[in-house]
């Protein structure tokens, strides 16, 4: 095993070195060492991919789709994305040539977009609790993150946004994620409109991560791209809606003047997305919309199951309007140090859930449970949680 020359020991990106690995993955990996543990830590759908989508990928392989695709993705998929957004969420029709880029998942979409559109020192608002990747990318680029603690209801209100903008007049953009990871909170059309009005008034860019848009249970998802298209970069993908996390297909849509730069960064990062994966995504968007609805209905049943189990165990949580997460408050009579709580829970009853504090300000004293697991596993998880609470009584 080669040892690094001592003179080269400081040859690394110092910003990256200051950022810890994904805290969700770190916790999940530690739990994995516990024999027999049941984990509700990751947002990993348990559904098998529908056969017609698999067949589309297989057909592309058989047809020798093994060469470089167009940098922005297969035109057929970009057309499907444009049609899907209009037909499903009533957005403007994005021009497939110039206003849509297919990416390696929503994660690459976020990284490419933030690198393409922001400069070191730019200020960006990120409401918390939030998905840790957002701030990690911002820190790698050298952005100044302005947090807005949305606890205890986990809603970004116009009042909170206006107050923050008054304190930080140089803010360039807002990163808005809904339905939310980790809280499951989403917004009505009126609530999104109120936020959009403020963003327009202040001439701000909005990076709208709507990866969970298909998973809205009570009402309809209203896209920021519908209400404020001239300010919005829309990020989404098929990982959550169609249980295609391993296929790694996401996309970015927005005004051509900005998407040009996003596409350039995307090309430097990954060149293009694999062809067979894009063929599968095209099939999902053209002929698999009912698949997403079927999964959504099952997730809703699972949400209700877990909410009932949490209530029985003495936990409180805001009713999630979307995604597949519940952000629950640890009862006061238990150890409300959420990190200590989840490790003791894992060791005592072999149940793994995520500590709320890893999602930023407002998450302390909470835990996140993912109900993207089988109904049987969720039932077992609630039994184990109640047993833990009874042991600590």
TrEMBL record:
Residues 37-383 form the Aminotransferase class I/classII large domain. It comes from the Bacteria. Pfam families: Aminotran_1_2 (PF00155). Its EC number is 2.6.1.-. Keywords: Aminotransferase, Pyridoxal phosphate, Transferase. Gene3D superfamilies: Type I PLP-dependent aspartate aminotransferase-like (Major domain). InterPro entries: Aminotransferase_I/II_large, AspAT/PAT-like, NHTrfase_class1_PyrdxlP-BS, PyrdxlP-dep_Trfase, PyrdxlP-dep_Trfase_major. Its cofactor is pyridoxal 5'-phosphate. GO terms for biological process: amino acid metabolic process. Belongs to the class-I pyridoxal-phosphate-dependent aminotransferase family. This is Aminotransferase. It comes from Weissella cibaria.
């Amino acid at each position: 095993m080669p040892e690094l020359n001592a003179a080269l020991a400081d040859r690394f990106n110092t910003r990256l070195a200051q950022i810890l690995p994904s805290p969700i993955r770190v916790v999940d990996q530690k739990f994995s060492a516990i024999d027999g543990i049941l984990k509700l830590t990751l947002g990993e759908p348990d559904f098998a991919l529908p056969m017609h989508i698999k067949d589309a990928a297989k057909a592309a392989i058989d047809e020798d789709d093994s060469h470089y695709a167009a940098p922005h993705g297969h035109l057929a998929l970009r057309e499907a994305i444009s049609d899907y957004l209009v037909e499903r969420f009533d957005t403007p029709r994005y021009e497939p040539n110039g206003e849509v880029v297919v990416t390696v998942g929503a994660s690459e979409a976020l990284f490419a977009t933030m690198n393409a559109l922001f400069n070191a020192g730019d200020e960006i608002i990120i409401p918390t609790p939030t998905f840790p990747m957002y701030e990690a990318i911002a820190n790698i680029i050298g952005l100044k993150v302005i947090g807005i603690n949305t606890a205890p209801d986990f809603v970004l209100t116009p009042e909170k946004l206006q107050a923050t903008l008054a304190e930080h007049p140089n803010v360039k953009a807002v990163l808005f994620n809904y339905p939310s990871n980790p809280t499951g909170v989403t917004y009505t059309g009126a609530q999104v409109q109120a936020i959009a009005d403020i963003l327009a008034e202040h001439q701000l860019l909005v990076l709208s991560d709507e990866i969970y848009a298909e998973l809205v249970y009570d009402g309809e998802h209203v896209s920021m791209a519908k209400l404020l298209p001239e300010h919005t970069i829309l990020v989404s993908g098929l990982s959550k809606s169609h249980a295609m996390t391993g296929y790694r297909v996401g996309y970015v849509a927005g005004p051509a003047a900005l998407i040009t730069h996003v596409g350039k960064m995307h090309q430097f990062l990954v060149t293009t997305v694999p062809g067979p994966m894009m063929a599968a995504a095209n099939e999902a968007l053209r002929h698999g919309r009912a698949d997403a609805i079927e999964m959504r209905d099952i997730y809703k049943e699972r949400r209700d199951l877990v909410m009932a189990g949490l209530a029985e165990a003495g936990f409180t949580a805001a009713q999630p309007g979307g995604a597949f997460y519940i952000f629950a408050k640890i009862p006061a009579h238990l150890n409300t140090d959420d990190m200590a709580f989840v490790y003791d829970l894992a060791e005592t009853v072999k149940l793994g859930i995520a500590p709320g504090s890893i999602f930023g300000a407002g998450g302390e004293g909470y835990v996140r449970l993912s109900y993207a697991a089988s109904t049987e596993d969720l039932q077992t998880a609630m039994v184990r949680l109640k047993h833990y609470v009874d042991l600590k009584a």
